[in-house]
Design goal:
alpha+beta; 12-stranded mixed β-sheet; two-stranded antiparallel sheet
């Protein structure tokens, strides 16, 4: 084993003397310990000049709130869907049940995980292999992808939120997820201990998962009577309808045929080719989680065209943490001057950030506006519908600079019809499969 040089007292004294010799270090310490790094490093000029006006706006009304959960990918996809539903039913305000979508996502994931692991156990995968340890550590989180959301809506549809509202566990998922994860770990241990009973262990786990989810989230409706009042006060009655019928009738926007575009900046993953992530999915037999790797500018062009020409929001995934002013609802690459405060040059580019674990997609939202320059194509800033409630930002809506899009947006969902012929051809070719722990497999 390589010997690691200890941090001895001589070196510690050198560090102390170096800190004291820096003219601004103590001033920075006084300011940050009192006010916090973001208030000290905030770029005043950049912040005040980031305007909230957009040449194209898609108004989606009051923002939603995912509370203490990681359901942003479901919230943002349902936010795009509710925009279509509101137009279909001529309503000002409407929300779809995120609890309903999460219930079936988690139930499907229990089944997917157990059957995936069962196949690995049968194939001789070691219990302490890198793959098995990754799958066990990553199981039953809240995050997901656009394709995974569409798998749920295609199979189970959607219901209006009042008919399957939030529960304590849907709004704060940590304890429920812990118990589900522990149950799944137990079943995997039993597979290794009793390989002759694997099929029974899988069935027992799915049954336990269903029981636990129903206890935490309630029993979702198989059908419901749908009635509503439109924005002009006119009452409508549609009678009994199933969730799938509701989705197909009122959210008929072709979302199921969208494709996911990603900007994987690593040179070994060429643009214009399809990539996939091993062992990443939720619905067994559903569409695989695959992406078409494209230039970031193509993603911008698609998002702009969808809003300007079709007038609907655009789902996207990003690394939301860097250079974020949460309270004021802003992102820009120079919004904070951390390097000046710390005396350190943060100079990684996008490829390096992905390669060395500094950045990956972790949050999904919806574009609902863009400011376009006079040439009709150059984008300047973006309006974002978030799912963190209306007490922050511009009543929950954020503003993103165009350069921040370039650096930290990784994925958007677009209609297949927008793709040029060479990209359509690439969709028909096998995906380059990346290991389960690859950064492109990060979930929003």
């Amino acid at each position: 084993m390589t010997e690691i040089k200890p941090l001895n007292e001589t070196r510690l004294e050198e560090l102390r003397e170096g800190f004291e010799s820096g003219a601004s270090n103590r001033l920075a310490m006084n300011a940050v310990t009192t006010s916090g790094i973001d208030k000290v490093a905030r770029n005043y000029d950049r912040s005040r000049l980031l305007q909230r006006h957009f040449s194209v706006t898609v108004d989606n009304g009051e923002v939603t709130n995912q509370n203490r959960s990681g359901r942003c990918w479901l919230f943002s996809s349902l936010n795009a869907a509710r925009f279509i539903a509101k137009k279909s039913m001529d309503m000002d305000q409407f929300e779809l049940s995120q609890n309903y979508a999460m219930y079936y996502d988690k139930l499907e994931r229990v089944n997917y995980f157990l059957r995936d692991v069962a196949a690995l156990v049968r194939a001789g995968e070691s219990a302490d292999s890198q793959l098995m340890l990754h799958l066990l550590a990553d199981v039953m989180g809240d995050g997901g992808q656009w394709t995974m959301a569409m798998n749920i809506y295609k199979k189970y549809g959607a219901v209006p939120k009042p008919l399957f509202p939030e529960t304590q566990s849907s709004a704060n998922t940590s304890q429920m997820n812990y118990e589900l994860r522990s149950m799944l770990h137990t079943q995997v241990a039993r597979m290794y201990a009793e390989p002759s009973r694997i099929d029974e262990i899988v069935d027992e786990g799915v049954e336990a998962g269903h029981r636990m989810l129903t206890i935490h989230l309630g029993e979702p409706p198989k059908s419901f009577d749908w009635e509503w009042t439109d924005k002009d006060g006119t009452f409508h009655r549609d009678g009994e309808i199933t969730p799938v019928e509701f989705w197909n009738k009122y959210i008929n926007a072709g979302f199921e045929d969208y494709v996911c575009l990603v900007d994987d900046p690593r040179a070994e993953h060429p643009k214009g080719k399809k990539i996939g992530i091993e062992h990443l999915g939720n619905v067994a037999g559903g569409d695989p989680t695959e992406y078409l790797n494209v230039p970031n500018q193509f993603m911008k062009d698609c998002a702009r065209k969808i809003m300007a020409e079709q007038g609907i929001p655009v789902w996207f995934g990003a690394d939301c943490h860097p250079m974020m002013d949460r309270d004021n609802g802003a992102w820009a690459t120079d919004l904070f001057e951390y390097g000046s405060v710390y005396g350190f040059d943060f100079d990684l580019d996008k490829e390096q950030r992905v390669r060395f674990g500094d950045s990956a997609m972790n949050h999904a939202m919806a574009f609902c506006g863009v400011d376009v320059a006079e040439d009709g194509t150059t984008t300047r800033r973006w309006r974002v519908e978030n799912s963190w409630g209306d007490k922050i930002a511009d009543k929950g809506y954020f503003t993103m600079s165009d350069d921040w899009f370039s650096e930290y947006v990784y994925e958007i969902a677009v209609p297949k019809s927008m793709l040029p012929e060479e990209y359509l051809q690439a969709l028909s070719e096998p995906a380059q499969m990346l290991p389960a722990w690859d950064p492109m497999g990060a979930l929003a």
